[in-house]
Amino acid sequence: MKYTFWLLICCFCVTANAQHNPEQKAGSKLWEVFLSSRVALTNRIPLHYLGTKPADSLKASAQDTLERVLVRDLTLSGMFNLRLPNLPPDTSIGGQMEERMTYLEGEFASDSDSCRVSMLLRSQLTDESFWKENYDFRPERSRAVAHRISADVIRMMTGEPSVTQTRIAFIGYAGGIKEVFSTTFDGFELFKHTHEENTILSPAWSPDGTKIAFTSFLRDQADLYVLSLDEGSVTPLISAPGVDQAPDWSQDNQRIAFSSSADGNSEIYVCRIDGTEIRRLTYSWAIETSPSWSPTGHELAFTSDRLGRPQVFIMDADGANQRRLTTEGEYNDSPAWSPKGDLIAYVRRCDDGFQIFVTDPKGENHVKLTSGPGDNLGPTWSPDGLRIAFTSNRIGTKQIYTMDVFGHNEERLTNLRMSCSNPTWSPVLNVETEKSITTEQ
Predict the structure, then answer these.
(1) In angstroms, how far is CA 14 from the centroid of its own chain?
(2) CATH 2.120.10.30 occupies which residues in the chain?
(3) What is the CATH number of domain 5-38+163-437?
(4) Average pLDDT over residues 131-146
(5) Do 300 and 292 meet the contact criterion of CB atoms below 8 Å apart?
(6) Superfamily of domain 45-77+80-158
(7) pLDDT digits over 188-221, tens only?
């Protein structure tokens, strides 16, 4: 979440929570028809994972971890009709999926301190493989290698990017201090990125995966900073009187939109990623915040209370052609544009708390994804546009959850003894980048 509208109203305090209610969703199919027309999750690819055969393996636990994580990754992707290793191949005549089935298998080997797994794909059990790759790794890296394998398989089979090589950063709050943490997309390998011992808010991951912009009070006022993930260094971006917050990177990695009250009330600004060429886009008596770039970089969604209550608006990247996106509900905030550009997630205050909705960029259809009691806040999209991470306090403390674009298949990402909020999803990270940003400086 690019820090919610309450930042300028309630001294940076907002709670987050929600509870999934399948009975409510089962009563209406409108949301499913609307989203299904935009998201291709039907006609899943038949894939039979035959497992990995050990070859003089000395690292059974590493092989077991790799296989479990790989199966979970392929299942969570939602792209496959997955047949598991304990099931025999479907060789029956006229089998419903035999002609479309692809087979994935591997061979695992290890020595005293390293492992290798060789993976291949074939279209028929007796055919030669059409894809083969070797992965060398240390046993403690078996989870990371499983994520790499699943990403390669998904890319090979669909041509789409995979969230299995992504991380989700968030703000962890404990002992009066807020710092930036991140985990893998499935909630493992927690890493602490900042050690500022200060209050940090509204993180935003850069499109190249190497930086995170955020708001902090390092100089006793709310300024914008940029964290270099590989170096661990923090540099000022925008330092002006008032509150500078809610940064969002353009997809071309050239500009950052943000809100600032430098001129009195909160307005939307844009600057170069080095903090130069600052340009003000909105001119209003109202509070305007939470900018979100469209993937083309031609438009921005944002929140404004110019009508008396916070609502989501859209404008061109130069501030022209401002129009209202949300027309229902008295409080709508925190827009997040999907990577494919066809959906915008946002938060609405409902009878059952703050809940996450999605709509099209024309605002013609609005679909409620979460339900209470409690609040769900801060939607952020996965780079493939098929999942949303968000904050919820459904268990009493704020934690990070994910769900698919239909509001189904919710997964709790964090289970920590601290408050976790403000998630931001990384782009797909290559092996070198992932290692560099999770290495202690």
Answers:
(1) 20
(2) 5-38+163-437
(3) 2.120.10.30
(4) 94
(5) yes
(6) TolB, N-terminal domain (3.40.50.10070)
(7) 999 999 998 888 999 999 999 999 999 999 888 8
Q: Is the dihedral of CA 355, 360, 75, 185 positive or negative?
A: negative
Six token digits for residue 100? 């479309």
In the chain, ranges of CATH 3.40.50.10070 domains:
45-77+80-158
- N-term to C-term CA, the chain: 27
Which amino acid type is present at position 281? L
**Do the beta carbons of residue 279 and residue 270 sit within 8 Å?**
yes
Q: What share of the chain is helix, strand, coil (3-state, %, to 5)?
A: 15, 40, 45
Cis status of the peptide bond prior to 22, with omega within 30 of 0: no
Distance CA 62, CA 138 (A): 9
DSSP-derived secondary structure letter, 98: T
For residue 174, list its beta bridge partners.
177
* Measured distance CA(122)–CA(128) in Å, rounded: 6
Backbone torsions φ then ψ of 137, nearest 5 degrees: -165, 160
Total-model pTM = 0.88
Contacts of 395 (CB under 8 A, 6+ apart): none
